[in-house]
Sequence to fold (428 residues):
Amino acid sequence: MIDIAIISKIRKAAIWAGLSLAAFFGIIAVISLVISGGAFEKPMQYRSVIPDITLNPGERKVLEFESFCLDSGRGSPRRGDDYSLMNTPAIKLRPYLRDIFNEYLSHPSRWKQGDVQQAVWYTQGNKKWQDLQPEQRDFIMTATGKEDPISGHPVILLSRMASIFGTVVKTNLLLAFLVLVLMVIALPFPSAYMERGISWMVSPRLAQKITRGRPGEMMDDFALNPKLQSLRSHIDVLFTRLVYRIFSRRR
Amino acid sequence: MGFLGTYGYILSIFGIIFLGLAILLSLFVIIPASYWLFSSLSSNRGPAVFRRLFAMLVIILVSSSYLNSPTFYGMAQWRKTTLICSFIVGIVIPVLRIDLVQLDRLSDRILASLAGLWWLILVISEALLVSGVEGQSVLLYFFIAVTGILCGAILGTTAARIAKQKLVQSEPEAGSS
Fold:
């Protein structure tokens, strides 16, 4: 039987979580609107440079495009790889990328493609300002109006942190969550195991408070659920029968 | 800076705080999680089959999530073959050495040691990843092999224990007839 009280609590928690998230993003949006003075980004320069491409049924056109690599960590494309023209979220997410492309498209003859490529990789946060050539620095300063613009930028810092720690955090949290589920589902008194596991980190009194409080009781109640116990026993019986059958055939 | 730029800027500051907290949390939870994994995997008490099958699923999910992360793209390309071979080794050895199974033991030391080794390699690999060491194919192959042996050993050890129980039960019957 499903407890109605738990469902109403879950519903209430979901509504509160939704409202809190909406309020959080809304407040940030209002603050951003005030700081930016309501100014939106200028439209991309390529719209005025590249002609509209329309194809009639059965028609073929050959067009040449200059392209740039957005991610220096990816492998080079191979001969015969398919390309598609599309918008990239990097323009919105990566700071100063829009300015760099706009500057190049405004004055294509003034800048070398190699320098623009280095500037694009610089916005990724993997290249140091000191390692760039003087003409590359000059291009970035002209495009963004700043010297070393990404230094200390939170978007770049976050992306660096995510690229370094992302996999580790995801793996560790996934392991902890799944093992917690394993304990609750597969052990008869998970709170006792939980207490032993965390007692080295916090004081024994706090460990007892955490594990013998309401969450611990809920976990134990769930673990002692008759249906869950019956599922455990059934799987044991099924596996035992399978092993018996295999070994009796061998004999 | 325009609206979207400012919005991204402010959100990133919160993102750094949340990611920082997640990093600290992930460093703290890995040790109790490993304790819970070792104890639930090695214990022979109660309905062990369900617990071990679920633990095997956890190990497979965590290992595949780690190995399939974009950081290891293109590395250890023979991972499936390594996994299957080591899984077979892990399942076959305990079944062939059924004579070594001791039914009175409350915990399985081999499974606990293998789970410990799996966890240790995972932590070393994560440490190398964070410190920016490029190319850890050898360690990844070792990790895949240990994962396969551990998963195979979970099945093999459990099956061997049940089979031994059946043999012990059937011996007195055979003796009496």
Notes: The radius of gyration of chain B is 22 Å. The first helix of chain B runs from residue 3 to 42. Residues 3-176 of chain B form one domain. Chain B has one domain: 3-176.
